[in-house]
Amino acid sequence: MPDIENELNAKANMVTSALDDLLSLRDKDYDSVIEAMRYSAMCGGKRLRPAMLLMFYELFGGNAEDALPFACALEMIHTYSLIHDDLPCMDNDDMRRGKPSCHIAFGESTAMLAGDGLLTLAFETAAKCRITPKERVVNAIGLLAKYSGVEGMIGGQVIDLAAEGKALNREEVEKMYSLKTGALIELTARIAAELSGACDDRLCLAVNYCKKIGLAFQIVDDILDIKGDSAILGKPTGSDADENKSTFVRVVGLENAEKTVNDLTAEAKDIASSLGSKLLYDLADYLVKRSF
Ligand code: GRG
Protein backbone atom coordinates (compact mmCIF):
# COMPACT_ATOMS: atom_id res chain seq x y z
CA MET A 1 0.00 0.00 0.00
CA PRO A 2 1.42 3.47 -0.85
CA ASP A 3 2.88 5.46 2.06
CA ILE A 4 0.12 8.06 1.98
CA GLU A 5 -2.61 5.41 2.35
CA ASN A 6 -0.72 3.81 5.25
CA GLU A 7 -0.33 7.22 6.84
CA LEU A 8 -4.01 8.17 6.42
CA ASN A 9 -5.10 4.76 7.76
CA ALA A 10 -2.81 5.02 10.77
CA LYS A 11 -4.06 8.52 11.64
CA ALA A 12 -7.69 7.54 10.97
CA ASN A 13 -7.31 4.56 13.33
CA MET A 14 -5.90 6.80 16.08
CA VAL A 15 -8.89 9.13 15.74
CA THR A 16 -11.49 6.36 15.53
CA SER A 17 -10.15 4.67 18.63
CA ALA A 18 -10.13 7.97 20.59
CA LEU A 19 -13.68 8.78 19.39
CA ASP A 20 -14.82 5.36 20.57
CA ASP A 21 -13.75 6.30 24.12
CA LEU A 22 -15.04 9.88 23.96
CA LEU A 23 -18.48 8.74 22.77
CA SER A 24 -19.05 6.07 25.41
CA LEU A 25 -22.55 5.62 26.80
CA ARG A 26 -22.96 7.18 30.25
CA ASP A 27 -26.55 7.61 31.46
CA LYS A 28 -29.63 5.64 30.41
CA ASP A 29 -31.74 8.80 30.51
CA TYR A 30 -29.78 10.45 27.69
CA ASP A 31 -27.81 7.60 26.12
CA SER A 32 -30.24 7.68 23.15
CA VAL A 33 -28.59 10.85 21.85
CA ILE A 34 -25.08 9.49 22.45
CA GLU A 35 -26.08 6.39 20.45
CA ALA A 36 -27.07 8.67 17.57
CA MET A 37 -23.77 10.61 17.90
CA ARG A 38 -21.84 7.31 17.85
CA TYR A 39 -23.87 6.02 14.92
CA SER A 40 -22.81 8.96 12.75
CA ALA A 41 -19.27 9.42 14.05
CA MET A 42 -18.19 5.78 14.12
CA CYS A 43 -19.28 4.72 10.63
CA GLY A 44 -17.11 4.93 7.60
CA GLY A 45 -15.81 8.53 7.31
CA LYS A 46 -12.43 9.02 5.66
CA ARG A 47 -11.16 11.08 8.67
CA LEU A 48 -9.37 13.32 6.20
CA ARG A 49 -9.50 16.49 8.30
CA PRO A 50 -8.18 15.03 11.58
CA ALA A 51 -5.54 13.05 9.65
CA MET A 52 -4.36 16.26 7.97
CA LEU A 53 -4.26 18.10 11.30
CA LEU A 54 -2.06 15.36 12.78
CA MET A 55 0.16 15.26 9.67
CA PHE A 56 0.69 19.03 9.82
CA TYR A 57 1.39 18.84 13.56
CA GLU A 58 4.10 16.24 12.94
CA LEU A 59 5.48 18.24 10.02
CA PHE A 60 5.81 21.21 12.40
CA GLY A 61 7.79 19.06 14.84
CA GLY A 62 5.09 17.84 17.25
CA ASN A 63 4.01 14.41 18.45
CA ALA A 64 0.61 13.49 16.91
CA GLU A 65 -0.72 11.99 20.16
CA ASP A 66 -0.54 15.44 21.84
CA ALA A 67 -2.80 17.06 19.23
CA LEU A 68 -5.31 14.17 19.23
CA PRO A 69 -7.99 16.07 21.23
CA PHE A 70 -8.12 18.70 18.47
CA ALA A 71 -8.17 16.03 15.74
CA CYS A 72 -11.18 14.40 17.43
CA ALA A 73 -12.84 17.79 17.95
CA LEU A 74 -12.51 18.56 14.25
CA GLU A 75 -14.02 15.22 13.24
CA MET A 76 -16.90 15.79 15.67
CA ILE A 77 -17.60 19.19 14.10
CA HIS A 78 -17.40 17.71 10.60
CA THR A 79 -19.80 14.90 11.60
CA TYR A 80 -22.26 17.35 13.20
CA SER A 81 -22.26 19.35 9.94
CA LEU A 82 -23.07 16.20 7.95
CA ILE A 83 -25.93 15.25 10.30
CA HIS A 84 -27.47 18.72 10.08
CA ASP A 85 -26.78 19.01 6.35
CA ASP A 86 -28.79 15.81 5.74
CA LEU A 87 -31.88 17.04 7.63
CA PRO A 88 -35.08 17.63 5.65
CA CYS A 89 -34.80 21.39 6.29
CA MET A 90 -31.32 21.39 4.66
CA ASP A 91 -30.27 18.98 1.87
CA ASN A 92 -32.76 16.26 2.85
CA ASP A 93 -30.47 13.29 2.17
CA ASP A 94 -31.46 9.80 3.31
CA MET A 95 -28.06 8.12 3.05
CA ARG A 96 -24.69 9.07 4.51
CA ARG A 97 -21.45 7.13 4.85
CA GLY A 98 -23.18 4.06 3.40
CA LYS A 99 -25.97 3.96 5.97
CA PRO A 100 -29.33 5.66 6.55
CA SER A 101 -28.73 9.28 7.62
CA CYS A 102 -28.93 10.05 11.32
CA HIS A 103 -32.48 11.47 11.12
CA ILE A 104 -33.70 8.41 9.18
CA ALA A 105 -32.24 6.08 11.81
CA PHE A 106 -33.15 8.09 14.93
CA GLY A 107 -35.76 10.69 13.95
CA GLU A 108 -35.31 14.40 13.29
CA SER A 109 -35.26 15.75 16.82
CA THR A 110 -32.67 13.21 18.02
CA ALA A 111 -30.55 13.91 14.91
CA MET A 112 -30.62 17.63 15.60
CA LEU A 113 -29.59 17.04 19.20
CA ALA A 114 -26.91 14.54 18.11
CA GLY A 115 -25.41 17.28 15.90
CA ASP A 116 -25.60 19.77 18.75
CA GLY A 117 -24.09 17.18 21.12
CA LEU A 118 -21.11 16.59 18.78
CA LEU A 119 -20.55 20.32 18.30
CA THR A 120 -20.43 21.01 22.03
CA LEU A 121 -18.45 17.86 22.87
CA ALA A 122 -15.90 19.04 20.31
CA PHE A 123 -15.06 22.08 22.44
CA GLU A 124 -15.07 20.07 25.69
CA THR A 125 -12.62 17.64 24.04
CA ALA A 126 -10.33 20.32 22.60
CA ALA A 127 -10.12 21.98 26.02
CA LYS A 128 -8.58 18.73 27.37
CA CYS A 129 -5.48 19.21 25.19
CA ARG A 130 -2.41 19.41 27.45
CA ILE A 131 -0.02 21.18 25.07
CA THR A 132 1.88 24.06 26.64
CA PRO A 133 2.06 27.02 26.80
CA LYS A 134 -1.66 26.85 27.56
CA GLU A 135 -2.24 29.99 25.51
CA ARG A 136 -1.70 27.90 22.34
CA VAL A 137 -4.66 25.68 23.29
CA VAL A 138 -6.85 28.70 24.04
CA ASN A 139 -5.95 30.27 20.67
CA ALA A 140 -6.55 26.98 18.84
CA ILE A 141 -10.01 26.71 20.44
CA GLY A 142 -10.70 30.21 19.13
CA LEU A 143 -9.69 29.08 15.63
CA LEU A 144 -11.93 26.00 15.93
CA ALA A 145 -14.92 28.23 16.70
CA LYS A 146 -14.12 30.86 14.05
CA TYR A 147 -13.53 28.52 11.09
CA SER A 148 -16.51 26.28 11.86
CA GLY A 149 -18.76 29.28 12.61
CA VAL A 150 -20.47 32.01 10.63
CA GLU A 151 -17.20 33.34 9.20
CA GLY A 152 -16.37 29.81 8.05
CA MET A 153 -18.34 26.62 7.44
CA ILE A 154 -21.74 27.92 8.59
CA GLY A 155 -21.31 31.07 6.48
CA GLY A 156 -20.68 28.83 3.45
CA GLN A 157 -23.83 26.84 4.19
CA VAL A 158 -25.83 30.10 4.41
CA ILE A 159 -24.55 31.14 0.96
CA ASP A 160 -25.37 27.64 -0.36
CA LEU A 161 -28.96 27.77 0.94
CA ALA A 162 -29.48 31.33 -0.32
CA ALA A 163 -28.24 30.28 -3.78
CA GLU A 164 -31.06 27.77 -4.33
CA GLY A 165 -32.83 28.60 -7.58
CA LYS A 166 -30.18 31.22 -8.50
CA ALA A 167 -27.27 30.99 -10.92
CA LEU A 168 -24.06 31.90 -9.09
CA ASN A 169 -20.98 32.93 -11.06
CA ARG A 170 -17.58 31.25 -10.71
CA GLU A 171 -16.31 33.72 -8.12
CA GLU A 172 -19.43 33.28 -5.99
CA VAL A 173 -19.23 29.49 -6.16
CA GLU A 174 -15.54 29.59 -5.19
CA LYS A 175 -16.36 31.80 -2.20
CA MET A 176 -19.11 29.40 -1.10
CA TYR A 177 -16.75 26.41 -1.43
CA SER A 178 -13.89 28.14 0.34
CA LEU A 179 -16.16 28.61 3.36
CA LYS A 180 -18.43 25.55 3.30
CA THR A 181 -15.70 22.98 2.65
CA GLY A 182 -12.41 24.89 2.60
CA ALA A 183 -12.69 26.40 6.08
CA LEU A 184 -12.37 23.08 7.96
CA ILE A 185 -9.52 21.98 5.68
CA GLU A 186 -7.64 25.25 6.20
CA LEU A 187 -8.31 24.87 9.92
CA THR A 188 -6.19 21.69 9.97
CA ALA A 189 -3.07 23.73 9.15
CA ARG A 190 -3.99 26.69 11.34
CA ILE A 191 -4.59 24.59 14.47
CA ALA A 192 -1.44 22.50 13.91
CA ALA A 193 0.64 25.67 13.46
CA GLU A 194 -0.86 27.33 16.54
CA LEU A 195 -0.33 24.25 18.74
CA SER A 196 3.26 23.74 17.58
CA GLY A 197 4.27 27.40 17.40
CA ALA A 198 5.22 27.05 13.70
CA CYS A 199 6.66 30.18 12.12
CA ASP A 200 4.55 32.43 9.86
CA ASP A 201 6.29 31.34 6.63
CA ARG A 202 5.48 27.66 7.23
CA LEU A 203 1.91 28.54 8.28
CA CYS A 204 1.44 30.62 5.13
CA LEU A 205 2.62 27.77 2.87
CA ALA A 206 0.46 25.23 4.73
CA VAL A 207 -2.63 27.46 4.50
CA ASN A 208 -2.09 28.00 0.77
CA TYR A 209 -1.73 24.25 0.30
CA CYS A 210 -5.04 23.75 2.13
CA LYS A 211 -6.81 26.40 0.03
CA LYS A 212 -5.82 24.55 -3.18
CA ILE A 213 -6.67 21.14 -1.74
CA GLY A 214 -9.95 22.37 -0.24
CA LEU A 215 -11.24 23.79 -3.52
CA ALA A 216 -10.07 20.75 -5.49
CA PHE A 217 -11.70 18.45 -2.90
CA GLN A 218 -15.12 20.09 -3.26
CA ILE A 219 -14.90 20.16 -7.08
CA VAL A 220 -14.05 16.44 -7.01
CA ASP A 221 -17.12 16.01 -4.76
CA ASP A 222 -19.23 17.68 -7.49
CA ILE A 223 -17.67 15.50 -10.18
CA LEU A 224 -18.33 12.35 -8.13
CA ASP A 225 -21.96 13.45 -7.81
CA ILE A 226 -22.09 13.16 -11.61
CA LYS A 227 -19.65 10.36 -12.44
CA GLY A 228 -19.28 8.50 -9.14
CA ASP A 229 -20.66 5.14 -8.02
CA SER A 230 -23.30 5.59 -5.31
CA ALA A 231 -22.46 2.17 -3.79
CA ILE A 232 -18.84 3.27 -3.28
CA LEU A 233 -19.77 6.83 -2.26
CA GLY A 234 -22.26 5.59 0.34
CA LYS A 235 -24.82 8.19 -0.76
CA PRO A 236 -26.94 8.77 -3.86
CA THR A 237 -25.43 10.50 -6.90
CA GLY A 238 -27.16 13.11 -9.07
CA SER A 239 -28.52 15.11 -6.13
CA ASP A 240 -26.85 18.40 -7.26
CA ALA A 241 -28.61 18.23 -10.65
CA ASP A 242 -31.91 17.14 -9.05
CA GLU A 243 -31.77 20.12 -6.69
CA ASN A 244 -30.69 22.50 -9.46
CA LYS A 245 -27.62 23.50 -7.43
CA SER A 246 -25.05 26.09 -8.49
CA THR A 247 -21.97 23.90 -8.54
CA PHE A 248 -18.53 24.60 -9.99
CA VAL A 249 -19.16 21.93 -12.65
CA ARG A 250 -22.41 23.59 -13.65
CA VAL A 251 -20.73 27.00 -13.96
CA VAL A 252 -17.59 26.01 -15.91
CA GLY A 253 -18.56 22.61 -17.40
CA LEU A 254 -17.18 19.17 -16.58
CA GLU A 255 -14.06 19.37 -18.72
CA ASN A 256 -12.97 22.74 -17.32
CA ALA A 257 -13.76 21.55 -13.80
CA GLU A 258 -11.47 18.53 -14.28
CA LYS A 259 -8.74 20.79 -15.65
CA THR A 260 -9.11 23.12 -12.65
CA VAL A 261 -8.73 20.16 -10.28
CA ASN A 262 -5.53 19.12 -12.06
CA ASP A 263 -4.16 22.70 -11.94
CA LEU A 264 -4.98 23.08 -8.24
CA THR A 265 -3.36 19.71 -7.52
CA ALA A 266 -0.18 20.69 -9.36
CA GLU A 267 -0.05 23.98 -7.41
CA ALA A 268 -0.62 22.13 -4.12
CA LYS A 269 2.20 19.70 -4.96
CA ASP A 270 4.59 22.62 -5.60
CA ILE A 271 3.73 24.03 -2.17
CA ALA A 272 4.17 20.58 -0.58
CA SER A 273 7.66 20.47 -2.12
CA SER A 274 8.46 23.90 -0.63
CA LEU A 275 7.32 22.53 2.74
CA GLY A 276 9.56 19.50 2.19
CA SER A 277 6.67 17.08 2.70
CA LYS A 278 6.44 14.00 0.50
CA LEU A 279 3.28 12.98 2.38
CA LEU A 280 1.46 16.22 1.54
CA TYR A 281 2.70 15.90 -2.04
CA ASP A 282 1.21 12.41 -2.32
CA LEU A 283 -1.96 13.46 -0.46
CA ALA A 284 -2.71 16.00 -3.22
CA ASP A 285 -2.64 13.23 -5.85
CA TYR A 286 -4.50 10.79 -3.62
CA LEU A 287 -7.42 13.18 -3.12
CA VAL A 288 -7.87 13.78 -6.86
CA LYS A 289 -7.95 10.07 -7.59
CA ARG A 290 -10.44 9.26 -4.81
CA SER A 291 -13.62 7.41 -5.69
CA PHE A 292 -15.48 8.22 -2.43
C1 GRG B 1 -26.04 24.52 11.88
C2 GRG B 1 -28.38 23.73 11.17
C3 GRG B 1 -26.93 23.79 10.92
C4 GRG B 1 -26.42 23.17 9.85
C5 GRG B 1 -25.02 23.14 9.58
C6 GRG B 1 -22.60 23.75 8.38
C7 GRG B 1 -23.50 22.76 7.75
C8 GRG B 1 -24.86 22.56 8.23
C9 GRG B 1 -23.11 22.04 6.75
C10 GRG B 1 -21.73 22.12 6.23
C11 GRG B 1 -21.68 22.02 4.81
C12 GRG B 1 -21.23 20.69 4.30
C13 GRG B 1 -21.82 19.44 4.81
C14 GRG B 1 -20.32 20.72 3.35
C15 GRG B 1 -19.91 19.52 2.63
C16 GRG B 1 -18.45 19.30 2.73
C17 GRG B 1 -18.10 17.91 2.27
C18 GRG B 1 -17.44 17.74 0.95
C19 GRG B 1 -18.40 16.86 3.02
C20 GRG B 1 -17.99 15.46 2.77
O1 GRG B 1 -16.70 15.31 3.35
P1 GRG B 1 -15.93 13.92 3.27
O2 GRG B 1 -15.92 13.43 1.84
O3 GRG B 1 -16.88 12.98 4.14
O4 GRG B 1 -14.61 14.08 3.93
P2 GRG B 1 -16.51 11.73 5.08
O5 GRG B 1 -17.81 10.99 5.25
O6 GRG B 1 -15.46 10.89 4.40
O7 GRG B 1 -16.02 12.29 6.38
General description of the model:
This protein has 292 residues and is mainly α. 74% of the residues lie in helices and 1% in strands. It is built from 16 helices and 2 strands. A hairpin with a 2-residue loop joins strand 1 (95-96) and strand 2. The longest helix has 28 residues, at 200-227. Geranylgeranyl diphosphate binds at residues 45-46, 48, 78, 81-82, 84-85, 90, 97, 153-154, 157, 180-181, 218, 221.
Give the N-terminus to C-terminus distance in angstroms.
18 Å
How much helix is in the residues? over 70%
* Biggest β-sheet description: 2 strands, antiparallel
Arithmetic mean pLDDT: 96
Which structural class best describes the helix and strand composition?
mainly alpha
Instruction: Report the principal-axis shape.
Output: globular
Topology as H/E string? Answer: HHHHEEHHHHHHHHHHHH
pLDDT < 50 runs, ≥5 residues? none
Strand order within the widest sheet? 1-2
Named once each, the bound ligands are: geranylgeranyl diphosphate
- Count of alpha/pi helices: 16
Strand content: under 5%
> Any idea what the radius of gyration is?
18 Å
Strand count: 2
Topology:
Elements: H1 3-22, H2 31-41, H3 48-59, H4 64-86, E1 95-96, E2 99-100, H5 102-106, H6 108-126, H7 134-148, H8 153-162, H9 170-180, H10 182-196, H11 200-227, H12 230-233, H13 239-242, H14 248-252, H15 254-275, H16 278-288
Helix pairs in contact: 1-3, 1-4, 1-16, 2-6, 3-4, 3-10, 4-6, 4-10, 7-10, 8-9, 10-11, 11-15, 15-16
This protein binds geranylgeranyl diphosphate.
The site of geranylgeranyl diphosphate has 17 residues, from α4, α8 and α11.
